[in-house]
Amino acid sequence: MEPRDDLIPASTSDAAEVLMHALCYDGRRRTHDAAELMARLVAERLVAYLERSGFVVMRAPTSNAPDSSRHPHPHRR
Questions:
Q1: Is the dihedral of CA 19, 64, 60, 1 positive or negative?
Q2: No. of helices (H) and no. of strands (E), the chain
Q3: Which residues contact 57 (CB under 8 A, 6 or more apart)?
């Protein structure tokens, strides 16, 4: 994987949401062995631990929604 220069620090809530999703889903299938409340608690504890340990989680900046229209947007020039 190539290093990227456009990465920005992820917020703790972003990291917790991603970890919670990873604990609740296997790909697109929902796993039934992890309740949503337990996943949230575990994710928040993991984020707190990573933060105390000095880890910085980076993410790519959000991109604009793709536009397949050939018509120009009225507010863009």
A1: positive
A2: 2, 4
A3: 9, 10, 14, 15, 50
Contact 8, 58 (CB under 8 A): yes
* Unique residue bearing structure tokens 């949503």: 36
Which amino acid is it at 72? P
Tokens linked to 77: 């020039």
Contact 46, 66 (CB under 8 A): no
Provide mean pLDDT across the span 52-63.
Answer: 81
What residues does 61 pair with on adjacent strands? none
What's the mean pLDDT in 41-62?
85
DSSP-based three-state secondary structure for 59: strand
pTM of the entire predicted model: 0.50
Q: Are strands 25-26 and 8-9 parallel, antiparallel or unpaired?
A: unpaired
Give the C-alpha separation, 45 to 20, whole Å: 11
